[in-house]
User: Fold this.
Amino acid sequence: MKIKNIFDIAGRAMAAQMVRLNTISSNLANAGATTGDPETVYKPLKPEFKTQYSENVKKNGISTVNVSKVVELQKEPFKIFDPNHPLADGDGYIYKAPINVEEEMVDMMDASRQYQNNVEVVTTLKALTLKTINLGK
Amino acid sequence: MDSIKKQLTFFGNALKVRNKRNDIIASNIANAATPNYKARDINFLDEFKKVTNTGEIRVTHSNHIPTKNYNISGKAFYRDPVIASLDGNTVELSVEQMQFAENTMKYQTTLKFLNGKITKMLSAIRGE
Assistant:
């Protein structure tokens, strides 16, 4: 798809930030998840952002952002000794998803700020366009 | 007909360049979280000189034909960050927001001037 105007720029940036917010909420939802097997434990998800330039970026300087892929971070799960836990393995260990809640919260605030910025840009430029259409009235 | 056009093209061109700059700053804000993205911007005055006939080739003789380059294809420069960030991204939201506010304000000012011109011409046409 071509990137032509402000709605393409900010719209896609908002979509990218939304993917970021989705991964953050998935991570937070799974923050306390425990398993008895270190292989199946939840791994934090992170999106990879990549700049997408318009075809004639040399002329109009327009670019936006896309999520190129969502990756699973290969972090070691938290190993906790809890032999009374129903999911504990043979040695009495359970495995907790390696999610840093504080880090995710900070990331969430950043993502929502970025989203708001893009909304602000669209609102401002939409108002300007409407004013331009109403010229001479 | 041409005299009416002349009245309007000056501010029209200014609006065009302002709009281009808005798009570029919006691209910067869109990429505020993209690693290795470099913030860009254009110099309004240089771009404006390019679209009006005050460019490099000046009209110094009555037989000269003024050069007009209506497709804005100027250089977009890279912004020098105040504080460099670790991920190679040079977008600073505070800077971009200020530039965006300034540019939209100036767009509105130009719009106001253009509106004034149109109102004046309309009242001249009506003979009020």
Notes: Chain B has one domain: 2-126. The beta strands of chain B are 40-41, 77-78. Residues 2-126 of chain B form one domain.
